[in-house]
């Protein structure tokens, strides 16, 4: 029992509220005594730091890990006014501030967190050496447009139950039942300003098709790895490969038998994500240079 308690204590983060870009942001810092590098994780829309619980388990063994809640969500909410939604450009500036504050070397985003992450990376933050963009693509395909169209209607009317069901029936369809129940409870009980925030973002995306500002991506000079699940029909591996037309140094990895939520869906996907991420982040620059525009399969990444 003492040993188990010690392991649990080691997993507890240091928490702090950081003032950045005129907002207050709840942060969690998982320290690794032997780590020489720090990675920051950028969650998707309507999500909190809890969404990275599975990812932290393997990253913390190698890196210091930084998580944070957007100003409008999670444990950041009590510290901010929510008079109007914040833009993805604002989220990018917040991310850049946190990168400096925690002296971050690597970045990993999930789903819609890829928008702010790519906008931030296009500004060439000096500290960032590599970045991973997961479950994201530059294309709004038919399945994603259908999902977003329904989402706009439910969010506008603050239809909590249908928003929760929509996520579980679409991008969350491959999650285990326990995670689906947690997802539904979380999404259907958000504050009204959180629904307004997401509605504003989706409305802009659907009407302007501007969820990913491709013209700025050529400014990104660091190596990028795009990871998608082979069962994800909303951000497919094939669609993600279109980033190769706009990004100078990129690689692609496909997680087998996984949907949108990747390492949350089952143990084999979790192991593939672990091997792929660590293989990319820990590769030497010379090895990294020899692998542009190729697939990183789990066997290679080990």
TrEMBL record:
Q: Which residues does the UniProt record annotate as the domain AB hydrolase-1?
A: 38-266
Q: Which UniProt keywords apply?
A: Acyltransferase, Transferase
* Keyword set includes Acetylation: no
Is-annotated flag, keyword Acyltransferase? yes
Which Pfam family is one of those matched by this entry? Abhydrolase_1
EC number(s) of the enzyme? 2.3.1.-
What Gene3D superfamilies would the database entry show? alpha/beta hydrolase (3.40.50.1820)
Q: What class of enzyme is it?
A: transferase
Q: What is this protein called?
A: 3-(3-hydroxydecanoyloxy)decanoate synthase
Query: Lineage of the source organism?
Result: Bacteria, Pseudomonadati, Pseudomonadota, Gammaproteobacteria, Pseudomonadales
């Amino acid at each position: 029992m003492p040993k188990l308690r010690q392991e649990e204590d080691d997993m507890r983060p240091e928490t702090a509220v950081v003032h950045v870009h005129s907002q207050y942001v709840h942060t969690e810092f998982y320290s690794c005594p032997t780590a020489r590098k720090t990675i920051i994780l950028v969650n998707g829309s309507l999500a909190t730091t809890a969404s990275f619980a599975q990812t932290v388990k393997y990253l913390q063994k190698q890196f210091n890990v930084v998580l944070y809640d957007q100003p409008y969500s999670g444990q950041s909410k009590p510290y901010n006014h929510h008079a109007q939604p914040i833009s993805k450009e604002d989220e990018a500036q917040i991310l850049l501030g946190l990168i400096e504050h925690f002296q971050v070397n690597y970045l990993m985003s999930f789903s819609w967190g890829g928008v702010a992450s790519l906008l931030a990376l296009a500004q060439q933050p000096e500290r960032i050496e590599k970045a991973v963009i997961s479950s994201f693509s530059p294309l709004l395909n038919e399945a994603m447009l259908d999902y977003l169209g329904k989402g706009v209607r439910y969010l506008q009317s603050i239809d909590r139950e249908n928003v929760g069901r929509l996520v579980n029936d679409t991008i969350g369809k491959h999650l285990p039942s326990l995670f689906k129940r947690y997802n539904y409870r979380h999404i259907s009980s958000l504050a009204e300003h959180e629904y307004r925030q997401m509605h504003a973002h989706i409305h802009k995306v659907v009407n302007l098709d501007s969820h990913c500002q491709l013209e700025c991506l050529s400014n990104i000079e660091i190596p990028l790895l795009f990871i998608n699940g082979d069962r994800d029909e909303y951000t497919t591996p094939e669609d993600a490969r279109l980033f190769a037309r706009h990004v100078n140094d990129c690689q692609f990895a496909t997680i087998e038998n996984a949907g949108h939520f990747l390492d949350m869906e089952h143990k084999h996907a979790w192991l593939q994500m672990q091997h792929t991420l660590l293989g990319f982040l820990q590769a030497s620059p010379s090895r990294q240079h020899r692998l542009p525009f190729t697939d990183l399969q789990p066997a290679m990444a080990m």
